[in-house]
Write a structure and sequence with these properties.
heterodimer, A: mainly beta, 4-stranded antiparallel beta sheet, 11 strands, globular, B: mainly beta, 6-stranded mixed beta sheet, 12 strands
Chain lengths: 115, 111
């Protein structure tokens, strides 16, 4: 089954404790992206990757890091989480970098709470 | 830059009622327009899209027409079901390697 898998789905952590949210897709998609979803703000892009070893900042990259060492994986790293990073996070992927279809395939989301 | 404004919710309807969710946009160039749907506990999934002016996207009984003159892409369904309860997002793009999403509209359909 074609899917985007995120882990963990739920996490409560404390300020400053490094964490990683993993994302893996099995569709051989070149493009992957991270969004955060906050009430009243919709989805905002954090980082994206056009292919292996190619990453770039989205609209709200502060406090986050990413890496793309393999085509299928695109982890999101919070080196020193803060309460304002409490949010619902979505990983998404697309074939051909959105240019052809504009269709994003989303994971089920990771709800992160930073105390 | 590109932006999307959609009507605020929540919207509560009875089964078989008519649903409209308004969406207007600001964009440079000629973006594609999308409606994504998020069912409870799930990620977003593409509902329908339109790639140029006057195109109509349709899926699962939902329709939306790309209106360049009014910069709108309103979502409509003639007879909603309880299973249509979800959050609906209007989006446009791609631009700068992303889609720009609206804030989302929560729709609840009562039996």
């Amino acid at each position: 089954e074609a899917q985007v898998t995120q882990n963990p789905r739920y996490l409560i952590t404390v300020t400053g404790k490094k964490l990683t949210v993993t994302c893996s897709q099995n569709m051989n998609h070149e493009y992957m992206s991270w969004y955060r979803q906050d009430p009243g703000l919709g989805l905002r892009q954090i980082y994206y990757s056009m292919n292996v070893e190619v990453t770039d900042k989205g609209d709200v990259p502060e406090g986050y890091k990413v890496s793309r060492k393999e085509k299928r994986n695109f982890p999101l790293i919070l080196e020193s989480p803060s309460p304002n990073q409490t949010s619902l996070y979505f990983c998404a992927s697309s074939l051909l970098g959105l240019a052809k279809t504009g269709e994003l395939f989303f994971g089920e989301g990771s709800r992160l709470t930073v105390l | 830059g590109n932006s999307v404004t959609q009507m605020e919710g929540p919207v509560t309807l009875s089964e078989e009622a008519f649903l409209t969710i308004n969406c207007t946009y600001t964009a440079t160039g000629y973006p594609s327009l999308f409606w994504y749907v998020q069912y409870p506990g799930e990620g977003l999934q593409l509902l329908l899209k339109a790639t140029k002016a006057d195109d109509k996207g349709s899926n699962k009984g939902f329709e939306a027409t790309y209106r360049k003159e009014t910069t709108s892409f309103h979502l409509e369904k003639g007879s909603v079901q309880v299973s249509d309860s979800a959050v609906y997002f209007c989006a446009l793009g791609p631009n700068d390697y992303k889609l720009s999403f609206g804030a989302g509209t929560t729709v609840t359909v009562r039996a």
